[in-house]
Design goal:
This protein is mostly helical and 158 residues long. It is 61% helix and 5% strand. It has 3 domains: 49 residues; 52 residues; 33 residues, no CATH class. The longest helix has 20 residues.
Length: 158
């Protein structure tokens, strides 16, 4: 259990012993831990469980096995499948790789940093070499426009 979570659970328990309300406890945690504080829901849940007699500040072990669907090998499988055909839909990728639709969506958007454009999955940001290539093309077009002022007129009338 990470240290800050343990500290906050202990602080909630302390506030309960001092008869502080869940709202006051939440406000104190917000002031002390700022952006690292527990959510309002978590504070209220822990506050209630300490009011009901809970003594332990550690999380209880969770049931079930840990999720492994976003494992590195699955990320790589999704990456290679999308590279082979960018027009694949999420449900097609998920059925092909036997993965949950939501997992495939998370892998594409969070791990591979992609988004949907028309019917293709494309990277959200241009890579350095792509930016350089676009800059070079723009410079070439500007140079050509200086040499041939009618260049764009010819292009737009075709």
């Amino acid at each position: 259990m990470d240290r800050q979570k343990f500290e906050q659970h202990s602080a909630i328990k302390f506030c309960v012993k001092l008869d502080k309300s869940a709202t006051v406890t939440y406000e104190k945690l917000q002031r002390a831990y700022r952006e690292h504080s527990l959510s309002r829901t978590q504070v209220f849940r822990w506050h209630k469980s300490f009011l009901d007699g809970r003594e332990q500040v550690e999380d209880e072990p969770r049931v079930g096995r840990p999720s492994t669907s976003k494992a590195d090998d699955n990320v790589e499988r999704v990456r290679s499948l999308v590279r082979s055909d960018r027009r694949l839909m999420l449900r097609m990728i998920s059925s092909e790789l036997n993965l949950n639709w939501f997992t495939v969506h998370q892998i594409l958007t969070q791990d591979l940093d992609m988004r949907k454009v028309c019917t293709k999955m494309v990277p959200k940001n241009l890579k350095t070499e792509q930016k350089a290539s676009r800059r070079d093309v723009c410079h070439d077009l500007l140079d050509r426009l200086e040499r041939e002022p009618e260049f764009f007129i010819r292009v737009t009338h075709r």
